[in-house]
Specification:
- Helices cover 94% and strands 0% of the residues.
- By secondary structure, the chain is mainly α.
- The longest helix has 37 residues.
- The protein is flat.
- The mean pLDDT is 85.
- InterPro entries: Spore_III_AC/AD.
Length: 127
């Protein structure tokens, strides 16, 4: 609970600092936003680490490659969404759109083994 409180207080202070930095220059605000997002992401991953360790243990026990694909895709989606939001906040809508497209392509590539397994299973059922 204290970790979540630390994250929320840091995010609130970052918003206040960003509003002050925007007065002096958009570049400084963008750099600060990138740094704040990196800190918040590392803290969130630290908070999420017990769940990740449990899932990785499950993958090791079952040798279930499909679960690995889903976890990688979820990580790609989270990172892409954060970067897209940063680009949008910086006023770079075209860049944000391209980040979104690249993230979707990466998710599809990551999910390809899962899709292959699905189509193979479907073909076996139809025979």
């Amino acid at each position: 609970m204290t970790d979540l409180l630390r994250i929320l207080v840091f995010a609130l202070l970052a918003v206040v600092m960003l509003s002050l930095l925007k007065q002096y220059g958009q570049g400084y605000a963008l750099l600060f936003a990138l740094a704040a997002c990196a800190v918040l992401l590392s803290w969130a991953l630290e908070l999420f680490s017990p769940v990740l360790e449990w899932l990785l243990g499950l993958i090791r026990l079952s040798d279930f490659e499909n679960l690995s694909c889903v976890l990688k895709a979820a990580a790609i989606v989270l990172l892409t969404q954060n970067l897209r939001d940063l680009c949008s906040d910086a006023g770079q809508q075209a860049l944000a759109g391209q980040v979104d497209v690249a993230g979707k392509a990466a998710v599809l590539i990551t999910a390809l083994p899962l899709l292959r397994t699905f189509t193979a299973t479907l073909q076996e059922l139809l025979r």
